Structure prediction request, 185 residues.
Amino acid sequence: MAIEEPKYAVYLHEGAYEIRDYPAAVAAEVTVTGDQHGAARKGFRLLARYIFGGNTRRQSIAMTAPVAVERTSEQIAMTAPVTRTPSDGAWVVRFTMPDSYSLETLPEPNDSRVKLRTIAPARFAVIRFSGLASTASVEARTVELVAFAKERHLHMMGPASLAQYNPPWTLWFMRRNEVMFQLEN
Prediction:
């Protein structure tokens, strides 16, 4: 059974890295708190309820991949001495809706925490990796992606997003994950 994924055009491909152009899309998202893994689980459950009929029409909406998880605030490096400010532990968890839907044709969520919104077209720097998306592996890939972008004089915007493509029962070594940064135009 094929699961719809957002369409994109590859601008640059180098090993595990890509620069991609995504068209506008519609998404359902929630903001939740906790650590990365707990927030992803909590957000996934809320969004799954919406697409499995927890909406004003009791309509099922096809599942898409990936599930995107993004911090709502980024840790910011301070100057002299270098320290890190703590984050608030809030995360946005997002499902991109199937292409056949628009904001006008999607049913309203029954849960007020689920928000529907249009995502503008954007360019992203992406690094793909397999395995478990532990906090440590995501942080390591984020550092690698930042170095890749800096070497190419790319200007990143906002926090990194983690995109996970597989259901939880997928064997760890077969999982597809990506860390993504939106780039300035």
